[in-house]
Amino acid sequence: MSITTERLASLIQRELASIVNLEVKDKSFGYINLTEVKVTKDLSFATVYYTILSDDPKVIERAKEAIEQSKVTIRMELAKKIKNIRKIPELIFKYDEALAYGNHIDKILKTIK
Hints:
Blueprint: H1 3-23, E1 33-39, E2 45-51, H2 57-81, E3 90-95, H3 98-112
Parallel strand pairs: 2-3
Antiparallel strand pairs: 1-2
C-alpha cells in the first residue's frame, strides 16, 4: 500500500470504530472490534476486518447479518465524517478469524501441558 492508501485505511478504521457500534442495531453479540482496514490502490473498495468476543458460529452469523443490514447507513455516516476525499470507498466487511484461531491454538497448548 502506498502512503495515501495507508493513511486513508487508518482514517477509515478510526472513524468506523465509533460509527459501526452506533449504527448496528442488534446488540446481542456485544461490541464490534475493527482489527484492520485495507484499501485498494484505486481507492474504490475498503475491506474492513472485524471481530466480536464470542466464537459461537450462530452469534458470528448474527453479527455478520446485522453489519450487512447497516452497511449503507455506516457508509453514509463515514462520508459525513471524512470530507477531504472525492469518493468514499465501497465497504466490504469480513470477519477476522485470526483471534478465534489464536484462541484455538491456545486451548490446544493448554491441553498438552
